[in-house]
């Protein structure tokens, strides 16, 4: 995902509000202890997610793909005092590490962290959802979208990460299954009359979908 000029990225981060000490520590410990630390949302994307969440003041957020919890902590910043974020992941090996950081946060009581298969868990959620963040297995993005779109309130948001896939989505030579799945997913969302679309070239690409009124 290192296709944005590094100097521009550094400049952007320098002129973005700083992350909290807890998030800095989570970033550092993820890079030191966990495989594939590039999966972490990080400072710039994290501040974007926190800003969007604070603007819409959600009562319920659904996150599909927790990893080590950085994005969940950022999204939780915008919750109303009685709100919660349900964050779903299948990786049991990361649970202890991730939960330890949730426990250190004052927002921890508002984070409902579940080690489950999202495909099975999402249909069980009955409440109306204000904001969804999808950052999980790319080949199932279309399925996750189909499972959540009718649960999102009118005017609510679905944000999807990694939709540029290190720029591979525009490379004709890239024919692997994940790249093609993302191309198909981006087109699927563009064609869906229930949502308005903005593909933002932030980090590895964020697709912002607003549920139409």
Count of alpha and pi helical runs: 8
What characterizes the major β-sheet? 7 strands, mixed
**What is the rounded Rg?**
16 Å
Chain-averaged pLDDT = 96
Structural class: alpha/beta
**Ends apart, CA distance between termini:** 34 Å
Classify the helix fraction into a percent range. Answer: 25-40%
Any low-confidence stretches, pLDDT <50, length ≥5? none
Strand order of the largest sheet: 3-2-1-4-5-7-6
Q: What are the secondary-structure elements, in order, as H or E? A: HHHEHEHEHEHEHEE
- Tally the beta strands: 7
Strand % is: 15-25%
Looking at the structure, what is the overall shape? globular
Structure in a nutshell:
The protein has 213 residues and is α/β, with parallel strands linked by helices. Helix content is 38%, strand content 21%.
Question: Could you explain the architecture of this structure?
Answer:
This protein has 213 residues and is α/β, with parallel strands linked by helices. It contains eight helices and seven strands. It has helices at 6-14, 21-33, 42-56, 70-76, 95-104, 118-121, 141-148, 177-191; strands at residues 60-64, 84-89, 111-115, 129-134, 152-161, 195-200, 206-211. A seven-stranded mixed β-sheet has the order 3-2-1-4-5-7-6, with helices on both faces. α3 (42-56) packs parallel to α4. The model has no long low-confidence stretch (mean pLDDT 96). This is O-methyltransferase.
């Amino acid at each position: 995902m290192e296709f944005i000029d590094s100097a521009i990225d550094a400049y952007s981060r320098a002129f973005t509000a700083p992350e909290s000490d807890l998030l800095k520590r989570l970033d550092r410990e993820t890079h030191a202890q966990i495989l594939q630390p590039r999966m972490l949302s990080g400072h710039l994307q994290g501040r974007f997610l926190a800003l969007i969440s604070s603007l819409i003041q959600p009562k319920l957020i659904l996150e599909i793909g927790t990893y080590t919890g950085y994005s969940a902590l950022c999204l939780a910043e915008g919750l109303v005092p009685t709100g919660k974020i349900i964050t779903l992941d299948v990786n049991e090996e990361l649970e202890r590490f991730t939960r330890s950081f949730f426990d250190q946060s004052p927002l921890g009581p508002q984070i409902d962290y579940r080690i489950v298969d999202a495909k099975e868990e999402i249909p069980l959620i009955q409440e109306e959802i204000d904001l969804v963040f999808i950052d999980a297995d790319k080949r199932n993005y279309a399925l996750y979208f189909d499972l959540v779109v009718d649960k999102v309130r009118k005017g609510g948001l679905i944000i999807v990460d990694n939709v540029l896939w290190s720029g591979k989505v525009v490379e004709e030579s890239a024919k692997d299954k994940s790249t093609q799945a993302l191309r198909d997913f981006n087109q699927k969302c563009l064609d869906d009359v229930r949502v308005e679309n903005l593909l933002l070239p932030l980090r590895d690409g964020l697709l912002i979908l607003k549920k139409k009124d």
